[in-house]
Amino acid sequence: MPLYTQLNQALTIAERYSHDFDLECSPTDEMWLQRWRSRHTALRDSDFDEMLNLRQYTPFGYAHCLNRDESADGSHMAWQRDVMSVWEYNMHCDAFSDVSVADFISAFAPFLAYGADGMTSLFDTLPYASDRQIVMSELLATLGKRLLRIGAKTLILEMNRERQAGHLQGDDEFARKHAFCVKLCSPTYREALFGKYPVLTRFCTQATLDFLRVCKQLLGRLSDNQTTLTDRFGLPKPFALEHVQLDEGDLHDHGASVAILTVSGKRVVYKPRALAMHRMFAALAHRCERQEGFLPLQVPGVLDCGDYGFEEFVESRDCSTVDEVERYYRRYGHIMGMVWLLNGNDMHFENIIPHGEYPQIVDFETMITNKVMFERHNEGAAGIVEDTITHSLAYSALLPSGMPR
What we know:
Layout: H1 13-17, H2 27-40, H3 45-54, H4 59-66, H5 78-87, H6 109-124, E1 129-130, H7 132-164, H8 173-184, H9 187-196, H10 198-224, H11 226-233, E2 240-245, E3 259-263, E4 266-271, H12 276-288, E5 302-304, E6 309-312, H13 322-341, E7 352-355, E8 358-361, H14 381-390
Parallel strand pairs: 1-2
Antiparallel strand pairs: 2-3, 3-4, 4-6, 5-6, 7-8
Helix pairs in contact: 2-4, 5-10, 6-7, 6-10, 7-10
């Protein structure tokens, strides 16, 4: 069955509800509502009714939405048109579905081909030099990893079904996996697969579009700040983008992530969020350094551009003497006091880089937090422990911790 005929199954309740339709609830609709309630939610009836009221839904309308896949006027929504634009590449993505190197990633060949085409257009307009082939290859590899995170479990499920049906030839699991991946290189098989999982198709399409938007934003911001970046971080001239390591942190705001950029042979960290807390901590550190006994700290330099910024890359480096080790831990103690003062948390080992005798924080996102306390009706041991930890230095994650084996 053609992919486009299955896409309406991926409509959200809100999208289905946005169309005018007859709100008379049929017995079939009521059956679907009962199935949905029993399978997908443990909400009490009163909670469910309150949620419907908040969204201005009626029980009849909600039930009807569960039992309909087509939009009432037969139109296609914007995301459905996006899916079909991407799927035009299904027959023209051999570069990403080579049978000789078949793997799970072959399932996403149309999305990668669409992404490659979009990136080519982006790089054609860059006002600065770049190692185009290398950077595009790195970006496409990141897109592939994102798509795999979305669809890997589905592929494993389908591979097992194919195995149980006796459709995979091979003497062992590796050979049978290869046989399945070869199937993924077939445009016909891919269309049947994604037609079976329209929600997966929608998610993969949105992830691809988000990724292109993030790449365009990153490359554009580099262009806007060429001169300032060169002066602030002492970048060699001419300005040239050589490598991009995306996804160096959690994804936010529809796919935006921290990236480590190699520009003219020097690494710089791009952060797609405001760096106000970073600057605040640096100012506090400089003020504390005036106090007797407080050792000077090093806080990575930044270029604050408002709702995004660039940060000095911190290279991990060991201490070279016993005295440096001692000063490192004294500075670590200073940092613990500052983080405790600011109610900071999530300061785990990945967020602090040892740079010789200087422990350097590289993620200030949770440096300042507001602890909201909820009234407990039945205070017990668990609540007391939680409150104690929340108001102690253990909350920061700066202290050693371990789970008993």
